Amino acid sequence: MFQWLIDFDQKAFLYLNGIHSPEFDDIMYLISGTKLWIPFYMVLLVIIVYRERPYHFLYTLIFIAIAVVLSDRISVLIKFLVHRPRPTYNPEIADIVHVVNYYRGGMYGFVSSHAANVFSVATFLAYHFKYYKWSLFLYSWAFVVTYSRIYLGVHYPLDLICGIVIGMLIGTQCYVYKVRVEVYLERKIEIFKEKKAKSEL
Fold first, then answer.
1. Residue 103: inside a domain
2. What is the domain range of residue 127?
């Protein structure tokens, strides 16, 4: 029923994966790796702590962590439910897929955990910062990381698109719940302070 979509997805992948050069191989490999994310996230952490009122940044950090864990675990679960091999493990095209540094990923690729993770964080922070330049930067970063997965030959476009959707949904919901929890706890703190002040009179 969906064979036409699978065929189109494979053709789109081969076209995009075929656009490569030695100059970009190492760059895309570095972008796709998690080591490059560490300094990026550290900068974001400093900005979040600086912008927030005392201890309020904890709400943000906790729900970012929840978003990443949810997007990662859900995407991995879908991989093992769907069992769609990555392009590098597809016997029909594996020999013509462009790979870098012999990296082929795990057996299954639908959906992309990279795409889900980076877009869950980008979406959450886009709501959090509420500034279009930050949103543009965050989504641009997420898109480049996501595209690197096609370049490296380990994901079809559909893997990434579905990962993006899942990540954005999770990022949105985590931000909504973060606001609700923050409002609820702040109200509880205010009530506690009011009761304490009255008891001291």
1. yes
2. 22-192
